[in-house]
Amino acid sequence: MFTLFSNQANLMSVFPTYSAVEAIQVKKNINYVLNNIGIPSADLLAQMQQEGFSIDEFDTKQSADSTIMATQSVLLANIKAVFLSPEKLLGMLKSFSLAEKISIKTILTDSIAHLRLPSEALLNQMAQEGLTLNADDPEPATKTAASKKVLAAKNKLNQALSSTIEHPPVDEQKLKVTQARNKLATFLKNDTANQSDDLLIARKKQRLHSALQALDNPLGDAIERPSLKVVGD
Length: 233
Hints:
By secondary structure, the protein is mostly helical. It has 11 helices and no strands. Helix 3 runs parallel beside helix 6.
């Protein structure tokens, strides 16, 4: 596969055949894939060389390139289809060794110049007149399933939170009922206590009134007033 896709002549035969929308899509796919297949930077390669190491000493994948027996037209059709699919392009380049990835990066970057890409001025003018090219973003395309799962999980979480707010759980409802009952019992107890206090105060007032009356008449009715009797002759 590396030999097939690293052949500049093959790429130059395929790239000019893409339409404007396809060319934009292919450029996006190439840029996205090259940033996500783990290609060592120039600084890292320089540091390896300075310390006396080659890239092959750090490679965990060995080249498994093989010759594909097919007609030229079939090979070119396969190449064209792969570059239109970010998933296929990413999967293929990930299978390459580090040395092959470094080599293919240079080849693909140079081959972008053979795409029939509209200029930025043309794209801006089209946009101003309401004409847009619907080229897909390769990153969401490779993560569609994961994105759907995340979105579904978020929706379920939001629904659960809304349901909890609008319809509290049974335990929470029981707790609210218990709290309401406790408040009512406390109110009744306080009200009864207030009534008892009023009754106690009334009794004390009655006793005080009786005591005041006793002070006004300390002897009370226990001592009878002397009566005058008329003694006859």
